């Protein structure tokens, strides 16, 4: 029997007095809900799959935009796994300096490897952001540095040491004038943190 026949039979029972008005209304609503529910559920099912696909595509786009490096870093920070904080080649003109910011998300062992790929020997040291004013003024004698992470006129630099969580600057400085030396240097910088 279809819905139309069911409703017709219910009306006939009500009209003959074999069913009260309230029983008729309840039976009619039950019959209508019985038919309508699978349709709505089926429609919802058809909408869920595309919505899940859109959500997955959105997550993939965010992952791609934010970069897998940043996502990996977030995960490594949460579980205190070894992470690479910096892995780039920095270009440093003669008679200049550059501060590479390092954010240590947890206390651990910091491994710094620098290699002058092309150019002049450099001075390297590690300091904190509160020393930026002295560096900007060129007052290098009053800049407080971590002695274990300092080197002068080097082409290759490798240092390892324990540091607390926080912000630091890895400062690379070329003191040559660029007259009888290279006008700029390319310095490969790789910094890793492990618990």
Summarize the structure in words.
The chain has four helices and eight strands, in the order αααββββαββββ. By secondary structure, the protein is of the alpha+beta class. The model has no long low-confidence stretch (mean pLDDT 83). The strands form two sheets. Strands 1-8-3-6 form a four-stranded antiparallel sheet. Strands 2-7-4-5 form a four-stranded antiparallel sheet, with no helix packed on it. The protein has two domains: 3-65, no CATH class; 82-194, Sandwich (Jelly Rolls). 14% of the residues are buried. It has helices spanning 3-16, 21-66, 68-79, 132-137; strands at 83-93, 96-104, 108-118, 122-127, 151-154, 156-163, 166-174, 184-194.
Topology:
Elements: H1 3-16, H2 21-66, H3 68-79, E1 83-93, E2 96-104, E3 108-118, E4 122-127, H4 132-137, E5 151-154, E6 156-163, E7 166-174, E8 184-194
Antiparallel strand pairs: 1-8, 2-7, 3-6, 3-8, 4-5, 4-7
Helix pairs in contact: 1-2, 2-3
Summarize the structure.
The chain contains four helices and eight strands.
CATH architecture field of the largest domain:
Sandwich
Number of strands: 8
Return the average pLDDT rounded to an integer: 83
Strand content: 35-45%
Shape: rod-shaped
Please give the alpha-carbon distance between the first and last residues.
72 Å
What Rg do the Cα atoms give?
35 Å
Strand order of the largest sheet: 1-8-3-6
Number of helices: 4
| CATH-assigned fold name of the largest domain | Jelly Rolls
List the domain count as a whole number.
2
User: How helical, in percent, are the residues?
Assistant: 40-55%
């Amino acid at each position: 029997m279809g819905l139309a026949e069911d409703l017709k039979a219910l009306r006939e029972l009500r009209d003959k007095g074999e069913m009260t008005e309230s029983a008729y209304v309840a039976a009619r609503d039950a019959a209508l809900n019985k038919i309508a529910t699978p349709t709505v559920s089926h429609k919802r099912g058809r909408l869920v799959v595309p919505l899940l696909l859109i959500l997955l595509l959105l997550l993939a786009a965010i992952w791609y935009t934010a970069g897998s490096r940043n996502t990996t870093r977030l995960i490594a920070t949460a579980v205190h796994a070894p992470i690479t904080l910096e892995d780039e080649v920095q270009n440093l003109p003669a008679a200049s300096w550059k501060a590479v910011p390092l954010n240590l998300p947890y206390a651990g062992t910091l491994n710094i490897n620098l290699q002058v790929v092309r150019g002049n020997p450099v001075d390297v040291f590690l300091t904190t952001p509160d020393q930026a004013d002295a560096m900007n003024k060129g007052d290098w004698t009053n800049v407080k540095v971590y002695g274990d992470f300092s080197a002068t006129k080097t082409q290759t630099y490798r240092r390892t040491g324990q540091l607390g969580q926080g912000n630091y600057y890895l400062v690379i400085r070329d003191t040559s004038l660029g007259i009888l030396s290279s006008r700029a240097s390319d310095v490969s910088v790789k910094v890793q943190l492990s618990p």
